[in-house]
Amino acid sequence: MSEQDKALVTDYLKEQNRPWNALSVSLNLHKKVGKTAAERILEELSKDDGPLEELINGKQKVYYYKQAADDGDNAISEEKLAELDDKIKDKKNEKGKLDEECSTIKREVDLLESEPNDDDLSNLITQAQEDNQEKRSKISGLKASAGSITPEEKKKITHNFDKAVSLWRKRKRMANDMIDKILEGGYPKKPKDLMADCGVETDSQCDVDIKEFL
Question: Taking every pair of C-alpha atoms in the chain, what is the biggest distance, in angstroms?
Fold first, then answer.
């Protein structure tokens, strides 16, 4: 392991300015330095204040040339570092804006995809037209049948309807009177509990209002 071999390996890593393992160094130098010799040189030059830095990734070791502050063309000044930091911040800001634009576009795409396409709209229009035609047919049938009711039949229907409403009012009044008397007799629960116990359903529970039929 000569000084010439050390210089050859050092100059190569400095020129390449990227990590290499011992085998790659040996091959890239066209075996001017053998693999075993390259391993020893790399390990030695990465110790203490040597010019190389060692990185271990699992079982693999790679080495790169240290970027010293006074390293000629490879040196990076404070101004250059500050400039790079500013560029990184700018790129991050650009990425944030692009992410927002992508999110907006994705929401718009999702909204468009949720809307019916031309085929769906055509089917919906056809279905609506068929429904309208069916309803028109029913209305026409009802209009035609309405004229077939005689005055006597209409009078009979009205009489039966008024009789049913009158009976409804009477039974409602009787039920309310009965509930009031039971409550006055000392029933321990609330009126709604009493009606539930007796199986009585109110008009509101049946979703009807007798005033609509008077």
Answer: 130
